[in-house]
Structure formats: structure tokens, C-alpha cells
Amino acid sequence: MKVLLIGSGGREHALAWKISQSHLCTGLYIAPGNAGTSIIGENVNLDPLHFKSVGDFCLENKINMVVVGPEEPLVKGIEDYFRSTEGLSNIMFIGPSADGAKLEGSKDFAKQFMQRHNIPTAAYRTFSRNTYDDGVEFLKTLKPPYVLKADGLAAGKGVIICNTLEEAKNNLHEMLEKERFGKASSRVVIEEFLEGIEISVFVITDGENYKILPSAKDYKRIGEGDTGPNTGGMGAVSPVPFADNDFMDKVENRIIAPTISGLKKENIRYCGFLFIGLMNVDGEPYVIEYNVRLGDPEAEAILPRIVSDFTLLLKCAAQNSLFDEELIICQEFATTVMLVSGGYPGNYEKGKIINGLNNVKGSNVFYAGMKQDGKNLVTNGGRVIAITSVESSMKEALNKCYKNAEIIDFSGKYYRNDIGKDLQQD
Ligand code: AMP
Ligand code: GLY
Fold first, then answer.
1. Ligand 2 pocket, 291 CB below 6 A?
2. CA-CA distance, 75 to 359, in Å (whole number)?
3. Of 114, 220, 231, 346, which is the most exposed, with the fewest CB atoms less than 10 Å away?
4. What is d(CA 199, CA 274) in angstroms, rounded to the nearest whole number?
5. Do 202 and 317 lie in a common domain?
6. Would the pTM count as exceeding 0.90?
7. How far apart are alpha carbons 338 and 11 in whole angstroms?
8. Which of 288, 291, 292 is the best mutation target for the ligand 1 pocket, counting ligand atoms within 8 Å of the beta carbon and taking the most?
9. What is the pLDDT of residues 20-71, one digit of tens each?
10. How far does Cα 16 stand from its chain's mean position?
11. Do 278 and 228 lie in a common domain?
12. What is the CATH number of the domain that holds 262?
């Protein structure tokens, strides 16, 4: 089976690594890929948003399966393009239709969907420029902190949490009137603040059946002790100790099952990954957000724990036969520590030479923002390298990650030293 994987981050390096382990995979292309994926498969210089060139490549190279890593091509309709184009419609496709991708592409759509299917989430209302005054009145009915969300995609930056009413009003004004996030904030969801601890739950579905993949906890803030600005994610651990059977039963019965059956009832074509960002509020799960992809860096921590043939799992999803596929997950702990460029998530310099990769022992190294520059590998983004270790305890896995984090070197290197600390029981 020849597979085309779309994307270029650490998540895609981990996906490429996992997909290529299967004997079913006889050829792997990554568009556009990165320096890490080029070691595993063949990088193809295609723009994932230029659907025709992606489709033409698939025809010319007899691709059997397309797997989409990031959300943007999905929100913009790449699955619909494949489904409706002659010659492409029978290629197996992992990623939802544009209608399904609205679960991530529109916060308002996601909230309405949850309401229609009685899925627990924070109380909310949506406002636009015409209803700004109503938005201010609604804010007055809430207790601080206030949660403001740009409706559309805003590169992970569209959520603002404000401690005072004044700050919330100003931000609402900036988002609606001054288009702070462009069109993405022409509508703003204001919602109740949920107090608790977050967890990322991942599912693969064929649109009717589903399998629950390993869950993970992501560390979003740049600073230790969860301080400073939000990033794409500074590390992850899987499994999450508080997500025991009792909690996961609630997640499955109240959230996963109604979401998948809701999509089916609404005739929304959805074959692919679903990432549910949850808040555990005193043992009760509430949906914070849906994403229509795997998380990054969560993918780097959860994929190494999947023992079953992952490519076969994807094939079963694409062929509507997930029900008879067994999913085996390893019971060990996986931890991921991200090495980032100094200054990230603000301004940072690129092109710093990366040394020490050959001396890494006992961890997987997934490349994110790095590229080959002549003989050297150099930094090429904010999040540079994800180091993942799998061991029988979280502590051991973290020790290994941190040993290797010291060995890999580049000017300005930064990482959080407290990944998983809040969850360790010993
Ligand atoms: P999102 O982009 O939707 O993942 O939101 C970014 C972050 O904002 C989440 O990871 C949460 O930490 C926080 N957040 C979003 N919605 C809420 C909420 N209703 N209550 C508390 N925190 C929230
Ligand atoms: N790590 C969070 C995300 O991928 O959205």
C-alpha cells in the first residue's frame, strides 16, 4: 500500500515513523514533510492547500491512502475534493469532510453540535459585531475569569482568558470591532470558565465505529509551573493517571459515543482522528474543544504506545470495518519533552546548528522545526525537536528524556523541566 501523509511537524514525523513500521506500507511520501520524515520516506514538495496538485501526485504515483496531519486542509475541504474528483474518490482517505472539520474550524458550530447531542461542555453564547452590546451584558452575568474564543481557526491563539470584566470587554471589542484575529474573530464565543485539569483524548473513527487511542496530557504554557504565554505544546505524558476506567467510561458514554452517533445522525462524513480536549472538573468530564487531527506533541507520546499495526487500523477505518480490528496498547508510560528555540513563542532566531543527535540513547527523537542545511541540521522553527521515551514508570521515562535533552545542543535551546511533575505519584 502506498501512503501519502500530509504535514510537516513533529506529529507527522511520529506518524511517518509509525505508518512505516507496518508491512502493509510499501511506499511512504510526505508532503511537504521535514528533515525527519525524509529519513523514513520521500518528501514531496507540494502545497497541501493546493488540492489539485495533491490529487495529481496521487494519480501519478498510484497512492492508495492519504493521511492528513494538520487541520487546515481538512477545514478547507481536501477530503471533499478527493471524494468528488474522478480517479481520486476510491483512494482511502483519513481525515473528515469539511462539514466534519467544522468541529475544529468553528467553535460556535462545535458548541451547537454539543448542545444538540447533550454533550457536557461549558455554558456559552456567541456574539458578532452587531451584538457587541449584548456580549457585554452577557459578560456581566458571568463570574471571572472570562473565556473569550475566536470562532474560526487562529493558529491556536484564539482563546483569551481574562481576569477582570474590564479586560474581557476590551478584548471582546478588539476581537469583534478591530478584527484582532481577522475573520476568525468576526464571531466570538464567550463561555463559562471551567476549573479543573485538562486531558487530551484521541479517537479514530470510520464514521460509525470507533477505537479509543491512548490519552495524553499536554503542557501548553512556556514556563515551568504552567506560567507565561501559551505555546503549541511543550511536552506530553501518556497515560494520564487520573484517567482511570471510571473516568474513561464517563468520557466514552457521555462524550465519545454521542459525538460519533451525532455525526452519523447529521450525515456528516467523518473518517479520521478526533481529538477531544477535556476538562476534568471534580471527576466529571467536560469538552473544552474538538480538534479533527492528532495533537502535537501528544502524537509523539501516544503513537509509540500503540502495539497493533497502526496502518492496518487506518485501513480498517477507511474501509468502514473498525469494529473487527483489535487495538492493543502498551501499558508503559511515554513522555515527550520539546526542545524549543530561545524566545519562542515570541520572536526567535532560526538556523542554529544542532549537535549531539547521534549520541541520543534510549529515546525516540521526532524532528519538528528543523531542516538540513548543507552538512548540518539547523533549527527552523519555534518547536525544534520532540524527545520521547517509553519506560515502565513515568519517572524513568522522564529521566531518559531529560538526559537526552542535555545531550542535544543548539544555541538558545530551552525546555521545561517539569513535564509530568504534577501527575507523578511517587
Ligand atoms: P483551546 O484553544 O480551545 O484549546 O483553548 C486554549 C486553552 O484555554 C485550553 O487548553 C484551556 O486551558 C483554556 N480554556 C479554554 N476554554 C476554557 C474554559 N471554558 N474554562 C477554562 N479554561 C479554558
Ligand atoms: N497540543 C495541542 C494541539 O495540538 O492542539
1. yes
2. 40
3. 346
4. 14
5. yes
6. yes
7. 12
8. 288
9. 999 999 999 999 999 999 999 999 999 999 999 999 999 999 999 999 999 9
10. 15
11. yes
12. 3.30.470.20
